[in-house]
Amino acid sequence: MARLAQVIERVESRAQGLCATVRAARARERAGEMERARLLDDAQRCRERLDSVYRARGVVDRTRLFDVLHEAARLRLVWRETLARATSLDADILRAQAEAEDHAARFASARRRIDGLERRLRATRRSVTNRALRREHDEIEDHAWKRVLK
Asked: Is the pTM here over 0.85, yes or no?
């Protein structure tokens, strides 16, 4: 019975660890979603600046036009890098979600195992109690018969 209690303790400890892991995975998932939204906003701002640079291309001064085209190329590069980072964050978010679901499933499994072990422990305790009561009843009955037979 002590061994069963130890098993229950270990499983409960593991379940608590899984709970903490699930919470951490969900926090990483939320942080990734916020970073992704920020990067998408940055990409949109870069795109808007790029559009304004293209609108400004009507400038006749060649030096100014070269500067404008150079800025447009730089902004296009920044925009692509930002989109690449956002895509990478999407993958990270999906991985974190899968990890959170996996840990949630493990936690549910551990919880079911704990419940089963607790049921077994209660049944064992009842069985031990019933055996002790039967033994005590048998001793009282034997003692009574001995008194009757004397």
From this structure: no
